[in-house]
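2 proteins. here.
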Amino acid sequence: MPKPVEHYVLDLGFWDLCRYAISTRRVWWFTATARTRARFARTMIGSFWLGLSNLLSVFVLALVYGTVFRVPNFKDYVLYLGFGLVLWNSLATAIATAPNLFEQQSQLLKNTNLHPIFYTLEEWSFQLQTFLQSLLLVAIVLSLLNISIWFNVLTAAFLPLVNFAIALYWLPVFVCVTGARYRDLYQLVPIALQLVFLISPILYYSKSLGSYAWVQNFNVLYLVIALVRDALLYGAVELQANLIVLFVNVLGTLSAIYILNKRRWELPFMV
């Protein structure tokens, strides 16, 4: 017996869902681009505000914490803090906004037959575009302090950036699927992110942790960020660490898609 048309898109197997995500890539990428353009409509410098706001934060924080920590080389500290802050802000923002993703799309979830994966991919595209625009302007300005950044981008940063982009998808998906069922995440996620930020060597060097430096080895968010920052600043590619992170990313992505597909019928009743 043929399935009703209105249920066809939702009733997909795992690999069919992956093909569906790829086949609709132009649609969710376009809608994300439209959101990015609408975000800065009627502004003078448009999306440059993304990079500018990050640059202002970097230089103010560098001045304050560079003085507090008495950093020996202020230029190196600005570079270290600059890339660390851009990467952290992008990943933390994607995770912080994830719990209410499906609630924002509740009307579409209830009245259309689009699979929920479409909305996660649209949000990922939006966050990825925001990240790339921020990173580009920050890299242009910081390269005035270290021109080798562009060489490192071409030779060392590809795999770490791919890992970062993948983590930017599956970590928020886990949060948003869980957040649709358990509203406690609305309160828990901001607190958890703030605590993780404080124990992450973003504002300070890793050596400042002293005997507690081992903590960063269990900080998944920081590990993803550190690999990108080290590649951009020093041209360092820790192949083993990057491959381990890539394996975790692939496993996390497949698990996130599986859980999302399994709970697709419940989502309209939870938002």
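next one coming up
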Amino acid sequence: MIAPGHRGQLPIVSMGCVAYQLMAGKADVGFCNCAAGLVKHYRLLGFHTYAGKLIPTPDGISVPLVIFPSDSRYFTEVGSFVGAFVNEYFGGKGRPHLDLGRWSGVLDTNAAPVRFDPDVVLERVSDFRHAETETPTILDALSEETVVKLSAKGFLLNLSAGQLLTEKSLKQRRAVHHH
């Protein structure tokens, strides 16, 4: 939605603030799905991963996300800039905060279809790297230091056997950068 040259700048802040204000005035819960590679960014806005199924789309697998506009604790935990609006809409003279206790099992990060814990990612990559295979992999050519750095930036998708990750004819969208 935002041109590559403007990502990480004020347009996302403006859009995030307006979207939050529109949602907080009317809804207790918001759902969306996004490309797996963008989940880390959505989490910084205040979205949670949850124990939902991955969603096949024409652009590949998407990850289901949920946001609770009254969850000031989580907004603070992730450092979301939209958390500054929570007291305007919830508590005091606003609407009551949603009791998230009933969502705890669904919000368990271990039950989510995508995992970001760098230690867990490194463990799985190391298991794969040290597995006895007849065919060499790209990981065999990488130093341990490089594998650790890549794992810190990576994530795991929990796919069932036979679940489609991408289509053969799907082409990766490329960002065009003008200098």
